[in-house]
């Protein structure tokens, strides 16, 4: 396994002039730390959607963990991490947590991936927000706060069930993991996947994405948990055809495919199923 550091080397000045409110004529220096076989692929896809140029540097893990050098960037030593340097900044701005990174980058460089906030004639009013914007804010948090929680528990249970334990302990671990699966994971995955199926079916303006007709940062955040649910959560085309087609639309985007290919070029493979 490896750790990849992505360095933004250039960015279209015209896009900066249109979208950046802080340094419209200065190309920012952005670095992102990425761990192999992790959900941080979404940040790479975001860079591709925004036509950012970058290079990838690879570092080896230490005993299957991120190297200690990451703690010099952020105290938790986790990835992804985005470090931003710009005009007037005395030190880099370090961002952790994928949702925050996506929101921050879009606020400055990609507001076209954020739905309009206010309905006509209702700017500033409580309840005046558009359905697309409310969905955007909801799914930005739902991806990690709800869906990924189930997937992490599922991974943990599979690790216990399939882990190397003495033969006389195996029946106990099978019973424990089986109970967690039948009483917690299976019904909750069904509830969440059915909910997401209905959200796609009722997308605003008859759109094909979660928040309407256009791709948003929320779709980027949701891509990884849905891909992982194919292996961990009983997500199949037969049970959830609209949601399956939605994920296929995400994965067929040229920016998504470019991001995956760059990972393959550096790491040799890409697996989104955890």
Q: What is the helical fraction, as a range of percent?
A: 40-55%
Q: Give the total of beta strands.
A: 5
Strand content: 5-15%
H and E order: EHEHEEEHHHHHH
The parts where pLDDT drops under 50 for at least 5 residues are: 1-27
- How would you state the average pLDDT, rounded? 84
Overview of this protein structure:
This protein is an alpha+beta fold and about 270 residues long. The chain has eight helices and five strands; from the N terminus they run E-H-E-H-E-E-E-H-H-H-H-H-H. The protein has helices spanning about 15-20, 40-50, 100-110, 130-160, 170-200, 215-230, 240-250, 255-265; strands at about 1-10, 30-35, 55-60, 80-85, 95. It has a five-stranded antiparallel sheet, covered by helices on one side. Strand 4 (about 80-85) and strand 5 form a beta hairpin. It starts with a strand and ends in a 7-residue tail after the last helix.
């Amino acid at each position: 396994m490896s750790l990849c550091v992505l360095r933004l080397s250039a960015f279209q000045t015209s896009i900066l002039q249109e979208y950046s409110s802080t340094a419209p004529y200065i190309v920012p220096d952005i670095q992102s730390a990425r761990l192999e076989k992790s959900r941080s692929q979404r940040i790479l896809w975001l860079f591709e959607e925004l036509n950012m140029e970058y290079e990838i540097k690879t570092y080896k893990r230490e005993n299957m963990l991120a190297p200690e050098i990451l703690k010099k960037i952020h105290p938790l030593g986790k990835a992804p991490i985005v470090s931003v340097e710009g005009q007037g900044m005395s030190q880099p701005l370090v961002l952790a947590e994928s949702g925050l990174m996506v929101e921050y980058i879009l606020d400055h460089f990609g507001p076209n991936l954020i739905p309009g906030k206010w309905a006509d004639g209702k700017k500033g009013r409580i309840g005046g927000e558009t359905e697309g914007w409310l969905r955007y804010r909801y799914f930005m948090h739902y991806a990690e706060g709800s869906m990924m929680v189930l997937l992490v528990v599922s991974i943990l249970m599979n690790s216990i069930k399939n882990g190397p334990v003495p033969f006389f302990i195996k029946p106990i671990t099978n019973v424990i993991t089986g109970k967690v699966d039948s009483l917690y994971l299976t019904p909750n995955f069904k509830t969440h996947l059915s909910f997401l199926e209905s959200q796609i079916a009722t997308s605003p303006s008859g759109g094909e994405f979660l928040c309407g007709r256009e791709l948003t940062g929320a779709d980027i955040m949701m891509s990884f948990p849905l891909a992982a649910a194919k292996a961990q959560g009983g997500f199949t085309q037969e049970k959830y055809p609209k949601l399956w087609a939605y994920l296929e639309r995400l994965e067929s985007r040229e920016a998504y495919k470019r991001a995956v290919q760059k990972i393959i070029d550096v790491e040799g493979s890409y697996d989104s199923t955890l």
